[in-house]
C-alpha cells in the first residue's frame, strides 16, 4: 500500500529511483530523511538505545546529509511488522532480529542465533569473512530488503526457573516460555513451551501459568524484575550463545543511495555492532552483580544429561527444518561448516585462556 | 624537524591550523591527503592489510574527500619510530601497537595487552564504555597524539618451544624470546628472556640462540615458518589474552579536521577494529588446522605450577612498575577494577557456554 512512500520521505521527489545516476551526484548537498521502525520500545535498554546509536552514527558520518527518525514498536507499525513494513516501503529502515521472521522464511532464524552454535566473535567472522552476510543478502533480497548486523547481545542466559533442575526427569511437563526453534528442541525432551510476549512474562510466572521463562540476559531481565518471581537463574544459553541484532533497509531505497552514503550506512552498522557487543558485556556484568548480591539470585547450570538431550534434540529439529527448504539448507551448511573450522581456535585460544584465568584465580 | 609537514600534505596551504574555523566549512569540497606510517611490512597479514583496510574505509566514508597513503615499516620511518614521527608531524597518522612505546611512557603498555588481563570483548567494553579510551587520550595527548583502537589480534599463543615443559623446573635458564612486561614476569620465574626482532626468530631458534619464542598466533606464526624449528606450540597467551592494534593521529592534524571527517576517522576505526577481530578469528583457525594436520605440530598447555608462578610474578612486575608513575597507576587501577567487574559475566556467559559446547561435543 505504502510501498513507494520512501520516495517522498527520502526527499528525492518524483524522479525517484529511475533518476538514481543523477541523485548520486546531486544528493551530496541534499538531506535524506528516513524512518526507522523497530521491534523495541523506544529507548529500550541496549536494543532501543542501540537503534538510536545507529541512527546517530549515520547522521554524524554523513555530516547531517542523512537523518534517521527512530520509532519505537507500535509508533508507526507494531513490533512484529517491521520486516513487512520495510520491505513494502512504509519505512525505509528497520531495527529488529531476524528470527522473528521465520514464518516468512525458515532461513531467517540462522541470522540471529543457532542452538549450540557460534559465539559472538565466531559469528562475526562468519558474517564478514565466511560468506554469511552474502547469504543473508540473498535470503532477504527475496523480500526487497538489505540486511546488516548492527549489534549482538553476546551469550544470553538459559532462563529463570522457579524450581531447581536436578535431572532430565525434572524437565518433564515443565511449562517454559521459550519461542522458536529452541522451544521446539525443548519440546523434544518433554518440556511444554509457550511463546508469550516479553511484557507478560512476569505475571505468567507469578500466577503459575509458567514454571520458567527465558528472556535475554541480566541487563534486560533485571529491568523486567523477573528475579522477583523466580529465584534460580540458569546459565548459559545453549539456545542463544550469541544473538545478532539486525538493521534492514528497503532495497529500492538502498539502491537509490549514492555510494558514499551506502558506505555511511554500512560502516555505521559495523561500528554499532561493536558498540552493542561492548555495552552488553558491561551492562550484563553490572546487572548480574545486582541480581546476585542485592537480590540473592541463585545461579545454576543445567545438569549434563539435560544439556546432552537438548543437543541431540536441537540437531534433530534443525535437520528436519532445513531438509525441505533449499536456501535454509545452504545457510545451515555454511554456518555449521564455518563453526567446525573456527571453533577449533576458540578452544585453543580464548577458551584455554579463560581456563587459565580460572586456574590462577585472576 | 618535519613537525609541520602535515600542513602541506593536508592540502591546507599556508593558513594551516590557525585557520581551522575556515577549514571546517571550506574543506568539505577539498581533498585531504594524509600519510600513514606503520610498524608492519607493507601488506603484512592482518596487521599491514589491517592498515590498508582502515585507510580504505576512511576514503569510502568520506566520498573520496580524504585519502590515506599507507607506508610499510621503513618506507618513510622505521617500524619503531612511528610514535615519534606522528607526534612530530612527519606523518599525520600511524598504525602500530602501544606497547612499543613503553620507553616513552609506562602507561602505554596497558593499551595493548596486560598479563592475565581482559579478553577482546572485555577490553573493548573498557575502551568504549569503561573510560579506557579517555585515559588513552590523556596519556597520548602528552605526545601530541590522538589514539584509536583499530583492531585486536584476539587471544594469542604462548609460544614455540623446542622441548616440552613438565614443571616450573623445566623453565629454569630457558632462553626465551619474549619482550616487554611479560618478559620481565618470565625473568621472575627463572627464564632468561631476550628481545630480538621478529624476522630473526627463525634463525635464532635454529642455531640454538633461543630455546623458545613467542610471536603472535597461528596466522602470523605459520607465515614465519616457526613450526620448522620448534615442534611444541604452547597455548594460551597468559601474556596477551587480547592485543589492541592502534592508530594514532597527529593532534594538530586531528584538531584541524571538520567534525564530519572526525566522525569518519573515528567510525572507520571502530569498523576496522571489528573487522580485524573477525579476520584473526578465521585466519588463526585456518592456520592452526594447517599447523596441526599438515605439519604435525603438538599443542601443549603450561603446567599449573608454571601458570600460577607466572601470575604471581606478573602482579609483582605490574605493581612495581605503576608504583612510581602516577598516570600508569590510574590506568592500571581503571583496568583492573573494570576487569574484576566485567569478567564475572564472561564466566557466567561465554565461558560457561564454551564448557557446555565441550561437554556435549558440539
From TrEMBL, chains A, B:
The keyword Metal-binding is annotated on this UniProt entry: yes
Entries under InterPro entries matching the protein: DctP_fam (IPR018389), SBP_TakP-like (IPR026289), TAT_signal (IPR006311), TRAP_DctP_sf (IPR038404)
GO molecular function terms listed in the Swiss-Prot or TrEMBL record: metal ion binding
Keyword Transferase belongs to the record: no
Domain of life assignment: Bacteria
Listed Pfam families: DctP
Signal peptide, first to last residue: 1-28
UniProt keyword terms in alphabetical order: Metal-binding, Signal
Residues bound to substrate: 156, 177, 214, 240
Protein's UniProt name: TRAP-type mannitol/chloroaromatic compound transport system substrate-binding protein
Organism this protein belongs to: Halomonas ventosae
Lineage summary: Bacteria, Pseudomonadati, Pseudomonadota, Gammaproteobacteria, Oceanospirillales
